[in-house]
Write a structure and sequence with these properties.
Elements lengths: L1 E7 L5 H14 L12 E9 L4 E9 L4 E8 L2 H33 L4
Parallel strand pairs: 1-2
Antiparallel strand pairs: 2-3, 3-4
């Protein structure tokens, strides 16, 4: 999986990067069957100093998945937690949908 972390309107932080990478490692179990070279995860951590608002956007794109989760709020770490939990839930739902679809096709049209 190719991971890109972009800081916008805020200073880059090694601690935040490590925090995001920790979550990205958890997502690998949902993407195990994907070609690792074709899986992209983009994380945007954006801070608006004038409004004291933060935004986290996570995109995962692969052959079978194209999921975007975006949240905003006042504190970056809880936002990262919330966004990553939602992304994990969406990945799980999409993975289950994909597996169910494959099982349905095998029932309908068994291979000879």
């Amino acid at each position: 999986m190719k991971l890109e972390i972009l800081f916008r309107g805020t200073d880059p932080s090694d601690a935040m990067e490590k925090y995001v990478i920790k979550y990205a490692e958890k997502f690998k179990k949902y993407l195990a069957k994907e070609d690792s070279e074709s899986v992209f995860m983009h994380v945007v951590l954006e801070g608006h100093h004038n409004h004291h608002m933060m935004m986290v956007e996570v995109r995962i794109k692969s052959q079978h998945f194209n999921i975007v989760v975006k949240r905003d709020g006042a504190d970056m770490y809880p936002l990262i937690d919330e966004t990553m939990h939602i992304m994990e839930r969406e990945l799980r739902k999409e993975k289950e949908r994909l597996v169910d679809d494959i099982k349905q096709r095998k029932k309908c049209c068994p291979e000879d």
